[in-house]
Amino acid sequence: MAAIKNKLENCEVCDVAKARYTCPKCEVRTCSLTCVNVHKKELECDGIRDPTKFVPLASFTDLDLLSDYRFLEQVGRSIDTKKRNPEIKYTRQTILPVHLHKLRCAASHRKVSLLYMPQVFSRHKQNTTYLNWKTNELFWRLEWIFPQAENIKYTIDRTLDSVRLSTLVEQVLDPVSATDEIDIEKLNTKLLLADKLQFYRAAGLTNIKVLLKAEKIKKAQFRFYDLDVTLTLQENLENKTIVEFPTLHVVMKDHSNMYDIIDTDEEMNDAECTSYGAKKRYNNRSDDNKKNEPVNYFFNDFSDSDDENTDNKVKKKKKSLNIPNYEELIKM
Which terms in the GO cellular component ontology are assigned (predicted)? Predict the structure, then answer.
């Protein structure tokens, strides 16, 4: 018994000096700060007591009861704080602010389905897409991702949608010569970007593909639309769904087989299914096609047709019945 008692009194890390401290979480006994740090590193212990740790009823004391009571009070305070926070409590339902409503209408006129995220999401806070309602010009925030350049990201706050996509790619690949930047920090950022995009500049536009991240379709997380660099940004975004702002992936054509690119037929089907009106028109068109289908009299059997059945019924009704006269019935 004495040996066990001495073993418990000694430090469980160095086993030389007597233990003076007990870890609130794992209950390891240590003798000094050095041993405390060693036990935290080896056991990956943060030293914070776990208030939800199971305590057997036999060893349950008044201190454990007080600890549980304080833990429940802390949970109640945390819930009350969350309820009082307007950013967490309020989520947008149907009514949009005026500027967001106008922006969505302008995108809809351009055949783009624009969706918004809740206000607390960082993507919504970062969105700088702007509509000049006087000139009806739409300026998109664009997020560029270059997978063959260490997945570097570059954002442009406002880009006019009437600009050709090839022009935008050239401006991004050579950001220093595109603008006359005075701010030193922004200039250093563009210099760093230009240095990492040397491989893309050497390849040229002919060996580059611009892919748009797909949204609101099956397996949208891994699928992309192939954009045409000869068209404008507005033309490329037609019949697409955009969440806040477009995300463009610039890849080499040799690496494009690594991406699940949506083909043209599937893209048209997705575009038709996005609107209820398109679905209705599609159903009406299919019904008209069924009505106008030619009838093949050689391979279709019309012997049991409805018209023939009705004619037979009429003929049966027209047949005269041999009902005897009343006088003959009396004689019988």
Answer: nucleus; pre-snoRNP complex
Nearest one of 29, 27, 39 to 8, comparing CA atoms = 29
CA distance 242 to 93: 19
Give the model's pLDDT for residue 109.
Answer: 93
Q: In angstroms, rounded to a whole number, what is the distance separating the alpha carbons of residues 74 and 64?
A: 15
Dump pLDDT digits (tens) for 19-44.
Answer: 988 888 888 899 999 999 998 888 88
The CATH number corresponding to 106-261 among 3.40.50.1950, 3.30.390.30, 3.30.160.20, 3.10.20.90 equals: 3.10.20.90
- pTM of full prediction above 0.70: no
Question: Which residues sit opposite 155 in a β-bridge?
Answer: 143
Q: Which two tokens stand for residue 7?
A: 């073993």
Q: What are the boundaries of each domain within the chain?
A: 10-50, 106-261
Query: In angstroms, how far is CA 253 from the centroid of its own chain?
Result: 26
Residues 6 or more apart from 86 whose CB is under 8 A from it? Answer: none
Q: Yes or no: say if 172 and 188 are a contact pair by the CB < 8 Å rule.
A: no
φ, ψ (nearest 5 deg) of residue 158:
-140, 120
Point out the residues of the chain with pLDDT beneath 70.
1-8, 86-94, 178-183, 264-332
Tens of pLDDT, residue by residue over 241-271, are 999 999 999 998 888 888 888 876 555 555 5
How many Å apart are CA 218 and CA 242, to the nearest integer? 15
- For residue 31, the tally of other CB atoms under 10 A from its CB is 19
Query: What is the chain's mean pLDDT, rounded?
Result: 77
